[in-house]
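Spore cortex biosynthesis protein YabQ
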Amino acid sequence: MILSISGQAQLFLLSIALGGAMGWIYDGLRLFRRMMPHGRVLVQTEDALYWLFLAPAVFWVLLKENSGELRFFIFLGLGGGLLLYFLVLSPPVLKVGEGVLRLAARVIRLLFDIIMTPFRLLFYVIGRPAGKIGGFCGRKGKKCLQLCKGYVKIKLRNLRRELAILRKKP
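Tokens:
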């Protein structure tokens, strides 16, 4: 299919926008990595999944807009869009994204504290006395078990002595 100059310009601008969108999606992945750091293998797996999902998307756009024809200026536009995004827009997007994530973490922490406050109060009202009672019972139970252990030792010693007497032949 033969494109006019204006059609090629539109396709070039579309490929620049697509490159910028690819950079924006990758920044989302970078924010996720900053929020939850993980090892090299998982990072490489995420990168592979990123390209496995975006390569067909780029191909679909090319197929729809350019009848599947691969042209050098399209790849130049994709690379230029990525480069332009990472040089100009990525730093403020990452800064704002980190701020939003920090704010979201604070809000979630605050909601968690609000939800957990009645349970903490209940623990202070019931848990501490119950813990003291349990500790007291545990100490008394331990002493009781130690006494029982001593009692069992005495009984076993007496039982062995009696068995030894029974085994002796007159």
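The chain has one domain: 5-124.
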